[in-house]
Amino acid sequence: MTDKEIKPWKLLGEEDVSPSPWFPILKHTVELANGSIVDDYYFSPLGDVVQVLAITKNNEVVLVEQYKHALSQVLLELPGGMQQKNKSIVESALNELEEETGIKATANRLIPMGKIANNPTKLRQITYGFVLFDAEFNSEQKLDITEDIRVLTLPAHEVLQKAINGEIWVTDSLNLIFKTALAYPEVFGLKLK
């Protein structure tokens, strides 16, 4: 090990080269810690994401199945979405949960599970995860025009197994499932030492 101090890059310039308001891209000119200049460092400031691992009174996890166009596949994941304009992270989490699943809850019932950065090299996007116990289907889905979502519930231990065996493979969902299983092993049928 060394005592080397890692220093941030110095921003010399920024240009918005976004092809669409739906997919922002920035071009930065930066000076590295070693003095080198990179004049074409591209990344996307997509915005933050919220996700909720909702568990029913019957110890079932609420999942959503939907088509994801970038991969051209139908994927199984936890409900969530982008932080909504003029809404806090918690408000966005509650709204996304209700919109995608028909589960309405209050802020005091959400348990924060931390944050996840999927690709901090090329994305400025943080996913904030929450757990909700005793989730109830007490509202209606309010889907966006691009959403076609099937809601399903599975026993928590089965969801963990699907994450382990690759049936659930979306990064945010995997991380939140695993973090929650470690924090609440009894919910997932685990016996940790």
From TrEMBL:
- Look up the record and name the cofactor or cofactors this protein needs: Mg(2+)
Q: List the Pfam families.
A: NUDIX (PF00293)
Outline the extent of the Nudix hydrolase domain: 45-176
| Listed InterPro entries | NUDIX_hydrolase-like_dom_sf, NUDIX_hydrolase_dom
List the catalytic activities from the record.
Answer: GDP-alpha-D-mannose + H2O = alpha-D-mannose 1-phosphate + GMP + 2 H(+)
Keywords (A to Z) from UniProt: Hydrolase
- Gene3D superfamilies noted in UniProt: Nucleoside Triphosphate Pyrophosphohydrolase
Q: Which GO terms describe its molecular function?
A: hydrolase activity
Taxonomically, the superkingdom here is Bacteria
Q: Into which family does the record put it?
A: Belongs to the Nudix hydrolase family. NudK subfamily.
Family matches, as PANTHER family: NUDIX HYDROLASE DOMAIN-CONTAINING PROTEIN, UDP/ADP-SUGAR PYROPHOSPHATASE
Name by which UniProt lists this protein: GDP-mannose pyrophosphatase
Q: Which organism is it from?
A: Mucilaginibacter defluvii
